[in-house]
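Input structure tokens:
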């Protein structure tokens, strides 16, 4: 196997691993914090992790980012499907040397899958479809309450920021090839 094929294979494995681990982590944390034994009998229980800073609060978000498009489940599902399509297109355009982008796309995909699962498949205790995303990370910074979010949202934001930084500044590659002049010097020196 050539070095180029090895790096492409390794990058694809990292992409799939990050996406699977991201989706699994998101769904596992949601299952823990929305389990009736943990959540208690209240509809939105709250646990103090760090007073006046970080709480766990179970909340259902029927909208997108910051609650936008609230109640438009199928519009949000269609938008998530477009994100998945965009990730697939970007993945086809990058090579195996761009590990940074593979990790970033894996984070976006894992987060999108976690939230898409909630919107389509998550069931309420009575068996009906919830059609919302389960959020529970609740930060209050200097008296301002940041919108409650989940692990998938964090993965999507970090992945999107990584993509933005890569596009803006270039960023690291993996297995970067030497310029041809350097390669010739190394070969000549070894003879």
């Amino acid at each position: 196997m050539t070095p180029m094929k090895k790096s492409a294979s390794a990058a694809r494995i990292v992409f799939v691993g990050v996406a699977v681990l991201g989706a699994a982590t998101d769904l596992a944390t949601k299952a823990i914090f929305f389990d009736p034994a943990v959540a208690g009998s209240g509809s939105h229980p709250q646990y103090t992790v760090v007073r006046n800073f970080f709480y766990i609060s179970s909340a259902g978000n029927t909208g997108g980012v910051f609650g936008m498009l609230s109640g438009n489940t199928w519009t949000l599902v269609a938008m998530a499907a477009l994100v998945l399509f965009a990730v697939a297109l970007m993945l086809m355009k990058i090579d195996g040397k761009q590990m940074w982008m593979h990790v970033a796309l894996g984070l976006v995909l894992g987060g999108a899958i976690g939230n898409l699962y909630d919107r389509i498949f998550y069931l309420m205790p009575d068996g009906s479809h919830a059609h919302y995303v389960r959020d529970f990370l609740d930060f209050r910074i200097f008296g301002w309450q940041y919108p409650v979010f989940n692990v998938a949202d964090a993965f999507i934001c970090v992945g999107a920021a990584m993509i933005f930084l890569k596009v803006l500044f270039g960023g690291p590659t993996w297995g970067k090839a030497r310029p041809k002049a350097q390669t010739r010097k190394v070969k000549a020196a070894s003879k």
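Residues 8 and 40 are 47 Å apart (CA to CA). The first helix runs from residue 3 to 33.
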